[in-house]
Design a protein that fits this description.
Elongation Factor Tu (Ef-tu), domain 3, 383 residues, globular, Gyrase A, domain 2, alpha+beta, 6-stranded mixed β-sheet
Length: 383
């Protein structure tokens, strides 16, 4: 039977209700509600923003272990004899340098050298490339790859087949080792292995978006709930904590990891964003290469910087940024840092004003408050 609509909805409330009901849901949606997750709209998905509080979840990841459902992320596979050739053409980094079972941070770029998406590329073999893409860009990326397809390859959107669970924090290896016979200590950073995880065949990747040691687990969607519950059963001695989007955002911001749609988009290049290291200008032709070579030769006009507030105030996303009396842009990402206990953020500044210790102002609630450019990342682990 069709679901009944709540009675007496105003037109605006009906529109909001309809939009919320049409959101995509991960296979763990009901589990999040059971765990006390506060659900919000994010990139067309209904996702948990927090459970018991973003601060607690943030610190749990820094100090012990937290678990995120990031199944809204998309997975696209390039399969076939010419998979490596196509992947080299459409990505900015050099996949030819990867060994099998190795991952790489990279980007899809347009001919202008600006971002279509930032991605993680997994080389399963020379004829099988697995790519994790941002949720909002999944369909766009798939269509673009189909357009650029050449040679003996197939492009496959496998997003609905997988759930992606991120187990992050200094105790993540100890926790997950209880669920698998795969020796996790032998999986190095940005490497992965296929193995049984509590009896479920999974891709186990030592990657993450928090700045902590951890793993991202690609699990068949129909097995995701059993794996999630097992993690929390074996993780009790570690005080394992479910974590939502809010904690994920402050964790990645402390590391100055870029967020597509905020810090990078189709108006920004990797060179401007401080991501020149994911661009290999000397590799064979790739989309966006010529534009980036020209930009490098001419010199950058702006640069993504990290900052901290000098005056008291929290700089939030999209707050206007001023140098003297001129608005030069906006805060791309900004928040209070739970680890550092101060307000930090990122913004694009004119290249001549992007030096460390440069002072500028951010308009917060009608007042221009002082900020200072500082080194990235903001958070550094004690060795």
């Amino acid at each position: 039977m069709p679901k009944r609509l709540p009675p007496n909805l105003s037109p605006s409330a009906f529109s909001s209700y309809h939009r919320f009901m049409s959101l995509k849901k991960t296979a763990l949606n009901s589990v999040h509600r059971e765990f006390g997750g506060k659900m919000v709209e994010f990139a067309g998905w209904e996702m948990p923003v927090q459970y018991q509080g973003a601060l607690k979840e943030h610190l749990a990841v820094r100090q012990s272990v937290g678990v995120f459902d990031v199944s809204h992320m998309g997975q696209i596979e390039i399969i076939g004899k010419d998979a490596l050739v196509l992947a080299q053409k459409v990505t900015s980094n050099d996949i030819s340098q990867l060994e099998d079972n190795q991952a790489q941070y990279s980007a899809f770029l347009n001919p202008q050298g600006t971002f279509i998406d930032d991605i993680v590329v997994y080389r399963i073999s020379s004829d099988h490339i697995f790519i994790c893409v941002n949720a909002a860009n999944r369909n766009k990326n798939h269509q673009w790859l189909e357009k650029e397809k050449q040679g003996n390859v197939q492009i496959q959107d496998s997003s609905d087949s997988y759930c992606l669970i991120a187990v992050q924090g200094p105790q993540s290896e100890a926790l997950l080792q209880q669920m698998t016979e795969v020796d996790l200590s032998k999986i190095k950073y940005y490497r992965f292995a296929w193995g049984m995880l509590d009896g479920v065949h999974s891709l186990i990747s030592r990657t993450g978006y928090t700045g902590e040691d951890g793993f991202e687990l690609y699990i068949p969607s129909e097995k995701a709930e059993s794996i999630w519950r097992k993690i929390f059963t074996v993780g009790k001695p570690f005080e394992v904590t479910p974590a939502g989007l809010a904690a994920r955002n402050t964790l990645r911001l402390e590391m100055c990891y870029a967020l597509y749609g905020n810090d990078i988009d189709n108006t920004t290049s990797p060179l401007e964003a401080g991501l020149g290291w994911i661009v290999k200008l000397d590799k064979p032709d790739f989309i966006g290469q010529n534009s980036l070579k020209k930009q490098k030769t001419k010199g950058l006009k702006r640069k993504l910087v990290g900052f901290e507030m000098i005056d008291r105030g929290i700089a939030r996303d999209h707050y206007p940024v001023f140098i003297e009396q001129t608005c030069v842009g906006e805060v791309t990402s900004g928040s209070f840092s739970p680890s550092l206990k101060k307000s930090v953020g990122m913004a694009y500044l004119p290249i001549e004003k992007a030096e460390i210790n440069q002072l500028f102002h951010i308009e917060i609630r009608g007042k221009k408050l002082q900020a200072k450019v500082i080194e990235k990342p903001f958070f550094k682990k004690n060795k």
